[in-house]
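Batch job 17 of 40 flagged for manual review because the log was empty.
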Amino acid sequence: MTDALDIGCGTLTSHTARGNVNIDLTRRPKNRPENFVCGDANHLPFKNESFDKVSFYEVIEHVENPSQCIREITRTLKSDGSCEVSTPNPTHWRILLRHLLHRRYVPWIEHIAMWGIPELENLLRTCGLRVVEEDYVTVKEREKFDRWTHRIADGIGHKLSLCHALTGRSVWVKAVKVNGE
């Protein structure tokens, strides 16, 4: 059995916990995932090399010290373990349109930073991980919050292989722990 950790698993009914261990900051979740641990990604309460896989979906844009979080993930990954990180895509057509209409950068109020693929790759590499795959994707749990017209436009653009950097709602990167790190 693969030991998998989901950091920022979410505690709402709309969230899907992906690990056999699930961690989030919420002390009293409305929807308590199986094997839930209340904890902070900056100081993971797990031993070194505990997990084969770590999911860090749609969380990095909320944390104040992303380097510390990624170092903690690297510490808890087994040798050759993998980490998947996703974050809202700063080059998605709706975000770019919002910037143009407001004539300035308009971040989400709860987001501390925006991450593109090059920035995520650099962060992961400096924290002892090797990037093996990246893409622009739509995270299924987020799709249900979009207007149906947006889902159709994104879907058509993605299927036609138009620029995925414009049609993928999220940036997704998969990395593996570098042996000996």
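Reviewer: the log was empty due to a logging misconfiguration, but the result itself is present. The beta strands are 4-7, 21-24, 36-38, 51-57, 77-88, 129-137, 170-177. Unflagging and moving on to job 18.
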